[in-house]
Amino acid sequence: MANANIELLKKLRNETSASIADCRAALEETDNDYAKAQEWLKKRGLEKAEKKSDRETQQGLVEAYIHNGGKVGALIVLQCETDFVARTEEFKGLAREIGMQVAAMNPESVEALLKQEYIRDASLTIESLIKSVIGKLGENITLREFKRFEI
């Protein structure tokens, strides 16, 4: 197992927001192969998300997304375990992305939304997007409800 290349470690940390320990482990496990390290981190994040899935989510925020022109909007209720995480930019960004998804794709239910391809990256579903943020923030995150409005 090779020591983690410091430049790759910095780059991986900046791009993924994963912990330094996880970035180091990913690079060491993959012999400093950057692409493989990214995949390693993705898999690790999904594993972390699965372990946290039974935790209660009592905190969170209501996010409003209004699409350009003001003709379409969405309100979503995204929940997490603590108010500390609810105030992070990562959590707020996830809420905004989900609001944009609702406005653009008009899903019928939360379950349908979770299975949709993410509009910014077709290789992800909304559910996998949420799980990736769970892996980064270390808390369970649930989408409780949403409402789409259109004129």
Structural topology:
Elements: H1 6-16, H2 20-29, H3 34-52, E1 59-66, E2 72-80, H4 83-86, H5 89-105, H6 110-115, E3 117-118, E4 121-125, H7 126-137, E5 141-150
Antiparallel strand pairs: 1-2, 2-5, 3-4
Largest sheet: 3 strands, antiparallel
- Report the average pLDDT across residues: 86
Q: How much of the polypeptide forms β-strand, as a percent range?
A: 15-25%
Question: How does CATH name the architecture of the largest domain?
Answer: 2-Layer Sandwich
Order of helices and strands: HHHEEHHHEEHE
- Helix/sheet category: alpha+beta
The tally of beta strands, per DSSP, is 5
| Overall morphology | elongated
Instruction: Report the span from N to C terminus.
Output: 58 Å
Class of the largest domain, according to the CATH hierarchy? Alpha Beta
CATH 4th-level superfamily of the largest domain = Elongation factor Ts, dimerisation domain
- Kindly give the count of domains: 2
Largest beta sheet: strand ordering: 1-2-5
Stated plainly, the CATH topology of the largest domain is called: Tetrahydropterin Synthase, Chain A
Q: Helical residue percent?
A: 40-55%
Specify Rg, calculated over alpha carbons.
17 Å
Index terms:
alpha+beta, Tetrahydropterin Synthase, Chain A, 2 domains
Brief digest:
52% of the residues lie in helices and 23% in strands. With 151 residues, the chain is α+β, with helices and mostly antiparallel strands.
